[in-house]
Write a structure and sequence with these properties.
Elements lengths: L2 E9 L4 E9 L3 E6 L10 E4 L4 E2 L10 H5 L3
Parallel strand pairs: 1-4, 1-5
Antiparallel strand pairs: 1-2, 2-3
C-alpha cells in the first residue's frame, strides 16, 4: 500500500525544503511541494504538521581485530 507523508520539512544534509510531501511504499516514489500534491485513491495519508524528515544515519564502523579476538 502506498503511503504519503504530507506537510513535512525535508533536510537532506545539503538542501532544506519546507511544506513538502513524500510518497512511498518500500522505497520513495515521489517527493514534491504541497502546492503540487494531489491525493490518490487508496493511499494512507500521514500528516507531519511541519515536522522535519531527514535521512537515517548509517554507521559502517568496525574494528577488524575484534573479529579475530579469542574469548
Amino acid at each position: 500500500m502506498v503511503k504519503t507523508i504530507i506537510n513535512c520539512n525535508i533536510f537532506d544534509y545539503e538542501n532544506y525544503k519546507e511544506n513538502q510531501y513524500i510518497r512511498f511504499d518500500d522505497k520513495i516514489l515521489e517527493v514534491g511541494s504541497m502546492d503540487d500534491f494531489k491525493k490518490r485513491n487508496n493511499e494512507e495519508i500521514i500528516d507531519f504538521k511541519g515536522k522535519l524528515v531527514m535521512p537515517g544515519f548509517v554507521n559502517g564502523h568496525t574494528h577488524i581485530y575484534s573479529t579475530f579476538a579469542r574469548e
